[in-house]
Each structure stands twice: as C-alpha cells, then as structure tokens.
C-alpha cells in the first residue's frame, strides 16, 4: 500500500492535480480534503506563489522531523501575507503526503462554532456529509474524531485561529499516540501561536522586491509566457508599491490582467492609482484586514486607527506614538494598578504588534520597539474605517463649505489653501504634515531649505479658531518666533512646534500640557523660569541645548515638575542639585554641552538624587578636562550613551561604569581617549551589560576576557580602524549572539571570523558575525 500510495502521489504531483480549493476567511464547512474533488487545472493561475520555498522547507522539517510525540507547528503573520497559501503548499507537498496517513483541514472563523469544526474534521476523514451525523452531540462527535485519529499518523491543519480559548477547546480532540502526528496551525495573532507552542513559532515575512515582481508577472502573464520587456521597469515599481503583501499583489495582478491593456501608459496609470484600485476591491483587500480590526478589544481600536494620522511610509518613533495616545485619552489605567500610563501604552503597542496590525520598524537589542509603522493596505483601511465612524478625517483633497467635515480629529496631509477656515472650531486634535498655506518669508539661514513663517495676524487667526484643541502637532512648518496665540489654547495636552527664539513665559498658561516638543534655534535657547509651574508636564523634548533656570531662584514660585519622566535637550550648565531635586521621577535624560567653552563652569554633576533615571545620553563636543569625572551616575541606570567624549582614559571606563549594577547598554560614540589600550582586570566586571558599542579611531589594543562581560549579547564596533583584534576569549561568553563590525580594520574582522568559526566547530551556532566593510579583501 505504501508503494502504491507513493506512485499515486507522484502521478498527481506531475500533473499539478494535488490542490485544495481556496478557503474564504469566513468559511466554516467545506470540502477541504485534497482527495475529495477533481483536478483544478483552470485554477492554476490562482495557485501561483513566489518566495515561499524557504518557508516550505522550514515547515516540512518541523513536520517530518523532531520526536515521535504530538507536536504543534505554528505559522503567524498579518492578514493577506500568505499563511493559508503556505499551509496549502505544505499540505499538498509530496514529502508530506508520503509521510502522513490521514490529512484533515479545518478552518476557524471569528464566530467559532465547536460543532462545525468537528463536522469539518469528520468530513475530511470519512467523506461523510454533516447530515450523516444528525442527532449526535458535541461530545459524541469529539469522541468519534479522537477514535478516527488514534491509529494512523495524521496531519491536521487548523487554519486562521483567533484566540487561545478556541485552541483550548479544540486541542483536546487531537490524541497523542507517539507516532509522529502533527498539528499545523495558522494565525494572525502571534500570542496565539506562542500559546499553542512556545517553541519557535514561524513568522512569515513580506516578500522582497524580486519575489513581488515575479508573483505579479506570473499572475498577469502566466508561468509559460514571456512578459513584454518594456513593462518590466514599471512592473517592478507597481510591485514595490504593494510593499510585499501577496494579497495586494494578487488583486493588482487581477486588475492588470482582466481590465487593463498591457501597455506602458496603462501600467503607469495603475502605478499612480494603486490606492484607488485597492479601495475598489473592498471584499478582497480591506475586508480581509477588517477581520483583524473587528476582533480587537475596544481599548485597542482607537490606538490602531490613530496610525492613519500619519502619511504613507511614515516611521513613528515609539516615544512619539505613546505620548500622543496618552494625550488623546486612549490610555487608561485600572484602579489599583501600579503601572504608569507609558507602561500601559507600551503593552497596547506590543499587543497590536503581536496581532500583526502594526509593524516594528526598528528595535533595540532587547526587543524594545524604537520605531513602528503600518502597511499601506492597513493604513487605507484605517482611513476608511475612521471616516465611517467619524473618528478622524484626513485632509487630502480640497472640499467646499458644503462638505465641511463634522469631525473632532484632523490630519492635514496635503496643502489646501485656507483649509483651516473649513474645519470645525470644535476640533480636538490637529496633525499638520503639510505647510499651512500661510505667508512666509524667503528661505533664510540657518535652515535654507525651509520656509520660515512670519508672526502676523493670519497666524493668530489660524490658531485662535480652535480653542478646544488637545493635540497640536505641526511637523514641517517653522516660525520665526514662537506663536503666542498657541499659549492661549488652554486645553492643550500635546504640542509639537518648530520656531526660532526662546519659548515665551506664557507657555506656563498651558496648565494641562503633558508633552512639549520644540525644534528651535540650533545655537540654543533659554527656557522660561515659569516652566516649573507646569506640574502636568511628563515629556519635554528640545532638540538643542536648552538652559533651564534654577527653580529656587524665585522663592515665591510654586516649583517642581513631579510628573516629568523625560527631558531631552537640557544644557549642562543648568544641571544643578536644585534642578535634579525638582524632577525626582525623571526616567530619561539627554544633556548637551553648551555652545561655547567659556560657558562651562567646572562643577561635579551629581545625578544620584534622580533615583529613577534609567537612560542617560551626553553630547560633549569640546576637548577639555575629563568629562566623565564631572558626573556621579545613579545606580538605577540601564542605558548610557556618551557622544563626542574625549580626554578620558580607558581605565576610567572600567572603574566608573562597572559600579552601575543595572547597566545593560553602554555606547561610546565618536570618542577620543587619551590612551589607546584598554586593559581590563579580573575585577572589572560589567555584570548586567548586554550591549556594548564602541565607535572611535584610537583604540589599538583591547585585553579582556569573557569574565568581564558575563551577560553580553551584542558587541558593535564602528570605525575602529586602529583596533588590532577582538579579544579571542569573547567566544566563551555563552550569552553572546552577535558581533557587528562597521568599517573596522581587516585584522579585527579576521579575529571576529576566527571567533565565529571556532564556536561553530564546537557546535555553537548561536553566535553570528556581521561585517560591513569599506575596503575589499
């Protein structure tokens, strides 16, 4: 029987007949066994896939290999990425067909019905119809499924599962007979995949440009036909705009093959109108993604829809997104919870990422998300859903007074003259990604590429229209001076503005302000003393060195910012004990050296009173006496970055920073030490350090052992041209996962390769070496 079975499978494979029908996301019961329907040669074009060979190999090995016990293999990814397609390909792959005896395919929907799943499984096993089981209870059906699966080696595909509760319900029907049976599970929810099996869930990635173009080309022209060479360049541009999502590529390919003549001009038009084409296929595109959105708990829906506030391909820094969510009122803490609003917001973001609705664009070494974004198709869904529910209106096209949108949140993403006159005065949030259409002066220094707006009555009229604003974020526009009218917007919680000159004292009138972000004069600014009256401030980000007067100069002033958690851009000369005592809950601090050397009085900067400080960055541009010796660091520090530091010796690095028991990241960027040898003794132990980054030219010799960095995960060396080699003992650091070299010496590159090879010879495949060179071997 085994020989006959293999022969039949070979025949079917040769004729491409071993296919299963397409399954809709809502399908509960259908003929899903590949042996229950005739050949589908007319559907071959729909079954064309690209870029899944590596995924197929990984899943095959996991299904066929490992032990004899029942194992659950999981595939996760965003809607439309091809999870079901990959599962189909695995389900019909000849090695899989030859390995297993029984094949079952069940599709789960958001409206889960246990009985329907049991009937679907029984149909695959026995080919009987649901009516044949009339009168049987759920327990009787489950018992029948279990008995049918107890003998042979089976493969069950559970497609499109949405929750851990559903998995708990159905996992009991799969018996473990220690015969190598497997369950293959697909889900959009990474948390569900990890719950079903914490061991290495397989996460699908978007297609690269090459495979995107191949998929588009083959679906339009077929596997056997050549494409016109003049269409390749524009075809690749179309494929690139699909951003690697097979669902979009398939829809666009269908549009190109059925409704558009295959000419260069017509394809150029498609490239320009991609969004409109996607929107015209709501069931195929947006409907698929709508399932993910409607499955969200209510607390996450506004957070997800808010991603539509940002233009296409906009990378949102995590800190910015979290502060916006808090200001918008999307984040709530439960009574009795000790978590801060920021911590709750981080959990929300992690949840949306695990559901594959938001993509992590940049990550820290420890997995923390630095920047995130959203696929264009998901963004298009956000815009449509937000418009339908009156959550938000994105200004992208001109509109007349008769079309005046009755919304509370607006995102201006295209220049429209006098658009503000048509927006309702009740607006609560305004995001400006386009110039406001106000009069501006000619381009001037020091920002020659930006128009600088005057302070004139039109600006006053613009902002005074919206007295109820809570969020005002003006991204591209620069003002010659801080618009005073903004300080009259009493309800503001979040303010992003770019201007020259100092921030006025009247900023203190914004008593509800939580987040202040100001790009200002590169030469530095002086902050008003009344800033200390703003007790609700949680986040200050000033991209220049900013002098903050002592809060105790005026004894009649109610001082202190007890809720402030981050201050980016504080001037070194304003760092006093009085300042630090008045911001006791600060978690993140960035200090700039002032613009002139004679403005730097020598004093010891004792930060030990800031006991919650976790991250500290120092930008020190001047080459004079030992900046490291000017600081007393708090033991709470987890991340430390020193940029442009000089006049230190390497022994100071060891003696100073090994005394910080919680330090996990240490970055020395563009340093210039007084000596060129770093010799670490047995007592120099960075107990918690996981990331070490060195970027400088004058370190020649480095003597250290694995004992100096017992928990190091990632070592990054940049522009270390003089460094002869990496300490060979670093290969013995059992936690070390990567060594990265960027434009370093050839000898240090060779030493990194030797360390990697030595570890591979010993069976350690965890350590990886990445080399980015500017020279050739």
Task: Describe the model.
Belongs to the disease resistance NB-LRR family. It is found in: Cytoplasm; Membrane. The chain has 777 residues and is of the alpha/beta class. Among the domains are: 202 residues, Rossmann fold; 71 residues, Helicase, Ruva Protein, domain 3; 76 residues, Arc Repressor Mutant, subunit A; 137 residues, Leucine-rich repeat, LRR (right-handed beta-alpha superhelix), CATH 3.80.10. Helices cover 28% and strands 19% of the residues. It has 22 helices and 31 strands. It has a 19-stranded mixed beta sheet that branches. It has a five-stranded parallel beta sheet with strand order 2-3-4-1-5, sandwiched between helices. A three-stranded antiparallel beta sheet has the order 6-8-7. It starts with a helix and ends in a 5-residue tail after the last strand.
């Amino acid at each position: 029987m085994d020989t006959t079975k293999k022969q039949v499978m070979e025949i079917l494979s040769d004729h491409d007949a071993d296919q299963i029908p397409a399954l809709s996301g809502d399908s509960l019961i259908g003929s899903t066994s590949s042996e229950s329907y005739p050949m589908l040669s007319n559907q071959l074009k729909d079954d064309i896939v690209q870029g899944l060979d590596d995924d197929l190999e990984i899943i095959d090995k996991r299904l066929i290999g490992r032990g004899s016990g029942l194992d659950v293999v999981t595939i996760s990814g965003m809607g439309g990425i091809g999870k079901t397609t990959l599962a189909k390909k695995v389900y019909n792959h000849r090695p899989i067909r030859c390995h297993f005896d029984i094949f079952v395919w069940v599709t789960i929907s958001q409206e889960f019905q246990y009985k329907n799943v049991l009937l679907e499984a029984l149909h695959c096993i026995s080919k009987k119809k649901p009516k044949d089981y009339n009168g049987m209870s759920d327990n009787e059906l489950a018992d029948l499924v279990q008995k049918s699966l107890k003998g042979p080696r089976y493969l069950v595909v559970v497609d499109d599962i949405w929750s851990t509760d559903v998995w708990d319900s159905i996992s009991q029907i799969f018996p473990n007979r220690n015969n190598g049976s497997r369950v293959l599970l697909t889900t959009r929810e990474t948390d569900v995949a990890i719950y079903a099996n914490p061991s290495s869930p397989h996460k699908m990635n978007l297609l690269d440009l090459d495979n995107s173009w191949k998929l588009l080309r083959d679906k339009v022209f077929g596997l056997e036909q050549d494409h016109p060479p003049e269409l390749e360049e524009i075809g690749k541009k179309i494929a690139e705009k699909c951003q690697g999502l097979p669902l979009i590529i398939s829809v666009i390919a269908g549009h190109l093959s059925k409704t558009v003549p295959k000419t260069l001009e017509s394809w150029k038009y498609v490239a320009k109108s991609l969004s409109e084409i996607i929107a015209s296929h709501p069931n195929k595109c947006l409907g698929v993604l709508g399932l993910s959105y409607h499955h969200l708990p209510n607390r996450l829906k506004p957070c997800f829809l808010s991603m539509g506030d940002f233009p296409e391909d906009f990378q949102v820094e995590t800190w910015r997104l979290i502060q916006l969510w808090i200001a918008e009122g999307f984040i709530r803490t439960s009574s009795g919870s000790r978590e801060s609003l920021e911590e709750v917001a981080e959990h929300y973001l992690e949840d949306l990422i695990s559901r594959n609705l938001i993509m992590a664009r940049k990550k820290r070494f420890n997995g923390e998300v630095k920047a995130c974004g959203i696929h264009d198709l998901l963004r298009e869904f956000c815009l449509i859903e937000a418009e339908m529910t009156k959550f938000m209106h994105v200004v992208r096209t001109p509109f007349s007074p008769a079309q005046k949108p009755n919304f509370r949140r607006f995102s201006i993403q295209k220049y429209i003259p006098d658009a503000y006159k048509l927006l309702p005065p009740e607006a609560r949030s305004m995001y400006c990604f386009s110039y406001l259409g106000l009069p501006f002066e000619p381009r001037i220094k020091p920002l020659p590429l930006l128009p600088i707006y005057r302070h004139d009555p039109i600006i006053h009229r613009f902002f005074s229209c919206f007295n109820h604003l809570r969020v005002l974020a003006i991204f591209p526009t620069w003002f010659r001076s801080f618009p005073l009218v903004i300080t009259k917007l009493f309800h503001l919680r979040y303010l992003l503005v770019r201007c020259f000159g100092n921030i006025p004292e009247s900023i203190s009138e914004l008593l509800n302000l939580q987040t202040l972000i100001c790009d200002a004069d590169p030469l530095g600014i002086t902050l008003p003393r009344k800033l200390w009256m703003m007790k609700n401030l949680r986040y200050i980000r000033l991209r220049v060195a900013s002098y903050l007067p002592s809060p105790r100069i005026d004894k009649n002033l109610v001082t202190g910012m007890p809720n402030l958690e981050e201050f980016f851009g504080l001037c070194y000369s304003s760092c006093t004990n009085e300042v630090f005592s008045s911001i006791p809950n600060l978690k993140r601090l960035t200090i700039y050296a002032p613009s002139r050397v004679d403005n730097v009085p020598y004093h010891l900067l004792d930060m030990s009173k800031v006991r919650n400080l976790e991250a500290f960055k120092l930008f020190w541009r001047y080459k004079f006496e030992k900046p490291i010796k000017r600081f007393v660091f708090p033991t709470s520090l987890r991340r430390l970055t020193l940029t442009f530091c000089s006049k230190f010796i390497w022994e100071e690095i060891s003696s100073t920073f090994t005394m910080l028991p919680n330090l996990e990241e240490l970055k020395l960027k563009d340093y210039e030490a007084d000596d060129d040898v770093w010799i670490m003794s047995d007592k120099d132990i960075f107990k918690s350090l996981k990331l070490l980054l060195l970027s400088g030219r004058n370190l020649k010799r480095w003597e250290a052992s694995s004992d100096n960095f017992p928990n190091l995960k990632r070592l990054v060396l940049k522009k270390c041209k003089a460094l002869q080699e990496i300490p060979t003992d670093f290969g013995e650091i059992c936690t070390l996962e990567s060594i990265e070299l960027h434009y370093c010496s050839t000898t240090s590159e060779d030493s990194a390769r030797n360390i990697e090879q030595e570890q591979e010879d010993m069976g350690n495949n965890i350590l990886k070496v990445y080399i980015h060179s500017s020279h050739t071997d």
